[in-house]
Automatic annotation (TrEMBL):
<feature type="binding site">
    <location>
        <position position="109"/>
    </location>
    <ligand>
        <name>substrate</name>
    </ligand>
</feature>
<feature type="domain" description="NADP-dependent oxidoreductase">
    <location>
        <begin position="18"/>
        <end position="267"/>
    </location>
</feature>
<dbReference type="InterPro" id="IPR023210">
    <property type="entry name" value="NADP_OxRdtase_dom"/>
</dbReference>
<dbReference type="InterPro" id="IPR020471">
    <property type="entry name" value="AKR"/>
</dbReference>
<feature type="site" description="Lowers pKa of active site Tyr">
    <location>
        <position position="76"/>
    </location>
</feature>
<dbReference type="InterPro" id="IPR018170">
    <property type="entry name" value="Aldo/ket_reductase_CS"/>
</dbReference>
<keyword id="KW-0521">NADP</keyword>
<keyword id="KW-0560">Oxidoreductase</keyword>
<dbReference type="Pfam" id="PF00248">
    <property type="entry name" value="Aldo_ket_red"/>
</dbReference>
<dbReference type="InterPro" id="IPR036812">
    <property type="entry name" value="NAD(P)_OxRdtase_dom_sf"/>
</dbReference>
<comment type="similarity">
    <text>Belongs to the aldo/keto reductase family.</text>
</comment>
<protein>
    <submittedName>
        <fullName>Aldo/keto reductase</fullName>
    </submittedName>
</protein>
<feature type="active site" description="Proton donor">
    <location>
        <position position="51"/>
    </location>
</feature>
<dbReference type="GO" id="GO:0016616">
    <property type="term" value="F:oxidoreductase activity, acting on the CH-OH group of donors, NAD or NADP as acceptor"/>
</dbReference>
Length: 271
């Protein structure tokens, strides 16, 4: 992979430092948006079976003039699947949808089905994880991880399975620091991926963030993305506007420790 700015999983696999998120991008729009991202230098594309856009995301990647090994592709196991056999089946469906031979990262999308958020599905998660361990051992996935998992959800996998998750993709943005979960993940060498680093756009109207952006001569979005990077998390910004696709990757500046402390003190805009 040619991107010089990388995070590295504990198994030695590299992942580009910013991903292009495709959540809420409809299937019919995803081809164009992912093509923009690739054109403007993104080499890390994040999708999921549940997004309903794997086919067009995969086609955009296949059609673009780039070697497969130079694009890091993530997809996710649907949140309602909690068995070994169904996990294997769903993984192969995602691979077929994408038109790829392997995935770089595969995640359990959530510890519970979306319609039963917070329910206890520990046994099912263990079975799903054991299936993903097998796919990893077979070389069909380069890294495996989870999404939206709490400390207790991850601990259950540590207690009953062989492989420590390599990533946990969680909502993370200024005002939602999730300190205990972040510390737990760091303790176990689990890379934290920050989805919704712009709080689905709600944070961009914050007067404090606007003032900070003016100070650094950047945009509020760039401040939010840079904040995540300086917290050692990997941001996955999503946009459907080409100029913002470009802008979101231009974060080659450093927020001072004093200004990071100011951003740390901002309250969650989504409470």
């Amino acid at each position: 992979m040619n991107d010089e700015k990388l995070f590295t999983f504990y198994n030695g696999v590299n992942i580009p430092f910013i991903g292009f998120g495709t959540w809420q991008i409809p299937k019919e729009e995803a081809y164009e948006k992912v093509s923009w991202a690739l054109e403007h230098g993104y080499r890390h594309i994040d999708t999921a079976y549940g997004y309903g856009n794997e086919e067009t995301v995969g086609k955009a990647i296949r059609d673009f003039d780039v070697k497969r090994e130079d694009v890091f592709v993530t997809s996710k196991l649907p949140a309602n699947i909690k068995s070994y056999d169904e996990t294997i089946k769903s993984f192969h469906e995602s691979l077929e949808n994408l038109g790829l031979d392997y995935l770089d990262l595969y995640l359990i999308h959530a510890p519970w089905p979306w319609e039963d958020r917070g329910g206890n599905y520990t046994k099912g998660n263990i079975q799903a994880w054991k299936a993903m361990e097998q796919l990893y051992k077979e070389g069909k996935i380069r890294t495996i991880g989870v999404s939206n998992f709490s400390i207790s959800d991850i601990q259950a996998l540590l207690d009953h399975c062989e492989i420590v998750p390599m990533a946990n993709q969680i909502p993370y943005y200024i005002g939602r620091d999730q300190k205990e979960l972040i510390a737990f993940c760091k303790e176990h060498d689990i890379l934290v991926e920050a989805y919704s680093p712009l709080a689905t756009g709600e944070i961009l109207n914050s007067q404090q963030i606007k003032e900070m952006a003016d100070k650094y001569n950047v945009t509020p979005a760039q401040i939010c993305i840079r904040y995540c990077l300086q917290k050692d998390t990997l941001p996955l910004p999503k946009t459907t506007h080409e100029e913002r696709v470009i802008e979101n990757k231009q974060v080659d500046f450093t927020i001072s420790s004093e200004d990071m402390a100011i951003l740390d003190a901002i309250e969650d805009v989504r409470k």
